[in-house]
Amino acid sequence: MFWRSRLTAFDFQAPSFYKKLGYVCYGTLDDYPPGVTVSYFRKNLQERTDTAMPEPNPDYRLSDGQIAAFHRDGFLAIPAITTQEEVERLRAIYDRLFERRAGREEGNQFDLAGADEEGKEAALPQILNPAKYAPELKETRFRVNALAIAKQLLGPNANYAGEHAILKPARHGAPTPWHQDEAYWDPGLLYHSISVWMPLQEATLENGCMQFVAGSHKLPVAPHRSIGNDPRVHGLEIAADVDVSGAVACPLPPGGATFHLSSTLHYAGPNTTDTPRRAYILGFNTPPKPRPVPRDFWWQREKRTARQERAQAARTTAAENKPGNVM
Known about the structure:
Helix content is 20%, strand content 28%. The protein has helices spanning 15-20, 64-73, 84-99, 141-154, 298-301, 306-320; strands at 2-10, 24-29, 38-47, 75-78, 109-111, 125-128, 159-168, 176-179, 189-190, 193-199, 210-212, 224-226, 236-238, 248-250, 257-261, 266-268, 277-285, 289-290.
């Protein structure tokens, strides 16, 4: 199906400009209004199978109060970062990716909360870099608005740093334990980074909305361990005693968003509802810098996951198949 664009232009509105853009004049009406000619143009646009994409807003603005609250608490929630039409479109793409376990062979699809055993249903499936397997995700209002807000929170040098998607299956989706994102990263670098978490359906306490400990971003990264202290599990949980009694839950409508810093302590509960909980997360940062003294994230060295094995095998195969490689 081709979408057809139509427009009307008076002769004082430079109709030749629209001709340069590929519009075709299919009729004119002289002396209407008196002394003016009106021209009617049309143009066939790109073939599409989904609804027209909403226009992004690179000038999306937070209030001064919202920015101050983010820097005070280490997190922020807003009710909408994109349209409901885009949420529906993203949900269809998201479900398709998880149904085919996109990225499995490369180690980019795995069970975040389990041993990731073949033939066993994942408790908390995750896909790293979903846009690699669905490039249309790179052209969304969500992405443009998220970057605009990231620049307000981190500064004008903020840029895209990565993305992932986490699914909590209906009725048995596992909790995402309390953790700090930075515990997964290079301990030798100094980060100024945020995650933008958007649900593709309503996010509630019952299905696993985000929860945060206000002010925890001001503390160093605490010791972590693999979930359940099982080195076969990719996901991490905090291994120190922390007070989460004052945690703030952030229920959201579809297409709302939370923003949190990489050192903010956060959690998402299990999904006890009859529908999946879908979350799509974008990361943004300013360029990381070397730390004067590297930290010791010993928990990273202890991991022995099936995801690591698949990722290593994929890298080895890619190197062997690289053009010009002689074995």
